[in-house]
Specification:
Blueprint (H helix, E strand, L loop, with lengths): L9 H4 L8 E6 L7 H12 L3 E9 L2 E8 L6 E10 L10 E9 L2 E9 L7 H15 L11 H4 L2 E7 L8 H4 L1
Length: 173
């Protein structure tokens, strides 16, 4: 599917990025040919004080993590994983990508998801898709499939949840 190339203003997204030891970023519906350019633009903005620790892509989604160079010695066990949940659970236009690592003796788990869209009962399908992603994506590839929150100290799930509301913003304010 053709998507417009986005050129976000990183000064608005990460205005005080230098105060953070870690930066993890994910995107969905990012044209596959633009992923590397997008990551390079993030790297150019955050500067040489950071190093890329990993990136993982699937279809039009990706996750990438950066750590300050001064902290690289505290980083261990970096792993990525992906779970396809698109057409026939094989196409990666929907699903999840994870980035997991140990940092200062704490286990971090980041999961970027792109869930099914639509209305009319699709909320149940999205919940089921999220459940399957969480049960299938392991934080350690050499272990049995273990849900990330069972072994991680810190968990983040973000992305395009494709939630739909029958009301408008004005109805809620």
């Amino acid at each position: 599917m053709a998507r417009d190339v986005q050129n976000p203003d990183f000064k608005l997204l990460f205005p005080e990025h230098k105060k953070y030891n870690l930066i993890v970023f994910g995107a969905q519906e990012c044209p596959r040919g633009n992923k590397d350019n997008f990551i390079a633009a993030v790297e150019a903005y955050i500067g040489k004080d950071y190093v890329r620790i990993a990136s993982e892509g699937m279809w039009e989604m990706f996750i990438v993590g950066f750590v300050k160079k001064k902290d690289i010695g505290q980083l261990m066990n970096v792993e990525t994983n992906q779970i396809s949940r698109g057409f026939m659970n094989m196409v990666g236009n929907k699903g999840g990508i994870s980035l997991n690592f140990t940092f200062y003796d704490k286990i971090f788990s980041f999961i970027n998801v792109h869930l099914e869209s639509g209305t009319g009962g699709k909320a149940i399908s999205r919940n089921e898709m999220m459940e399957k992603i969480l049960k299938s994506i392991s934080t350690r590839k050499n272990l049995e499939k273990v849900e990330p929150d069972a072994v991680s100290d810190f968990n983040w799930i973000f992305g395009d949840m494709n939630a739909r509301f029958k009301s408008t913003y004005s109805d809620h304010i």
